[in-house]
Design goal:
binds zinc ion; alpha/beta
Length: 304
């Protein structure tokens, strides 16, 4: 009864005093833009390809054990990652793979192949948990153990994080700062890199912003037992991604793409990624870089 009473007593959003809504909005916020005057070696546009190797973790984090659903995730390791690595090698492009610790533990050889090929590995939760429903202590414990696990398996300490499902909690920034991370790549306040503010104060932490528009999952996801179907053909996804790149190049900005090996790795879709890379390669002044290289570059040019 006591809990119910205190809930009833809580003011509703339209009753909040200004300090309440200002406090909520100001907890984690975009600060100054870190978009450089020009990119490395005079490049006109920076291109950051990222692959979130979720594999089976999307099923596991729901507490589900269906071998059918798990097999869709395993496809990411068996077919997706090898195809992606071959494509990146053909075009000499470095990329960033964000990997949940449970998946890195299931597939340690895959992570070592990724690192040996010159790519980087970043934090992507323990089992793709939803940070916003976790107590802060659990989120902190899982994020730290995830970094330790990736370092042990891949041999390199991760310097960046992408929260699973981009579910960035009110505690995530403080935890990432405690861990001394260089950048986050989960938020959407800009097209180009910016400095994160915490409670109005600059943090020196770089945000490399994402967007659902530049994510393969929203166009291709499918769930047999709901109405979710992939209605967008690969040619239309290519058109959208190409327009996002063209816009970034016109503005001298960042083109950051999020993909998933178990989604983009299929035959009809890896082909669209290759067409996109060919389109990008057809332009001069393109800097293909890992997220860490971009974060270091914008920090060095801005003094953040
Ligand atoms: Zn993910």
């Amino acid at each position: 009864m006591a809990a119910k009473k205190s809930k009833d007593a809580m003011p509703l959003p339209w009753q909040w005093p200004e300090e309440t809504w200002r406090g909520i909005v100001g907890k984690v916020r975009a600060g100054r833009s870190l978009k450089p005057a020009q990119w490395k070696d005079g490049a006109r546009v920076a291109v950051a390809l990222s692959f979130d190797s979720d594999h089976e973790s999307g099923t596991l984090r729901e507490g589900e054990s269906s071998p059918g659903k798990l097999s869709q995730g395993q496809y990411g390791s068996r077919q997706g990652v090898p195809r992606i690595l071959a494509l990146l090698e053909r075009h000499h492009i470095p990329a960033r793979f964000f990997v949940p610790a449970v998946i890195a533990t299931l597939y340690p050889g895959e992570q070592r192949r990724v690192v040996d090929a010159g790519h980087e590995i970043g934090i992507h939760g323990w089992i793709h948990e939803r940070n916003s429903v976790l107590p802060a202590a659990d989120e902190r414990d899982l994020q730290k153990r995830s970094a330790d696990t990736l370092e042990r398996i891949a041999g390199v300490r991760p310097v960046g994080i992408r929260t699973p499902s981009w579910d960035f909690s009110a505690h995530t920034l403080a935890i990432s700062r405690e861990m001394g991370l260089l950048y986050d790549s989960s938020l959407m306040a800009d097209d180009d890199p910016y400095e994160l503010l915490e409670d109005g104060q600059p943090t020196g932490m770089v945000e490399l912003p994402v967007e659902w528009i530049r994510d393969d999952a929203i166009y291709f996801n499918m769930d047999r037992f709901s109405a979710l179907r992939p209605y967008t053909p690969p040619s239309s996804v290519l058109e959208i991604f190409r327009a996002e790149f063209d816009g970034a190049r016109a503005e001298g900005g960042l083109f950051l793409l999020t993909m998933h090996p178990h989604i983009i790795g299929h035959r009809s879709r890896i082909a669209l990624l290759e067409r996109l890379i060919e389109h990008i390669r057809g332009h001069a002044g393109v800097w293909f870089a890992t997220h860490a290289d971009i974060a270091r570059y914008v920090k060095s040019t801005s003094g953040a």
